[in-house]
Q: What sequence folds into this?
């Protein structure tokens, strides 16, 4: 199953670094490559909206890795 998540921010350049660093760290922890996709951002009214696609294998690996915390 693929998950679509919309990210909303008022400072995408700064937050992009945080999102990518966090997701890349989680990918390494779960031994997954290319587990997510960040689509092109759309800006309106001072906000930026980004669609993120979280692939099923990444989601399942996250669930397995953090099962004791869920």
A:
């Amino acid at each position: 199953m693929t998950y679509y998540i919309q990210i909303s921010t008022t400072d995408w350049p700064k937050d992009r670094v945080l999102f990518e660093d966090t997701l890349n760290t989680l990918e390494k922890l779960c031994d997954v490559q290319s587990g997510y996709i960040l689509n092109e951002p759309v800006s309106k009214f001072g906000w930026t909206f980004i669609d993120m696609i979280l692939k099923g294998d990444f989601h399942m690996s996250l669930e397995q890795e953090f099962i004791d915390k869920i």
The beta strands are 3-9, 36-38, 42-44, 47-54. The chain is about 40% helix and 30% strand.
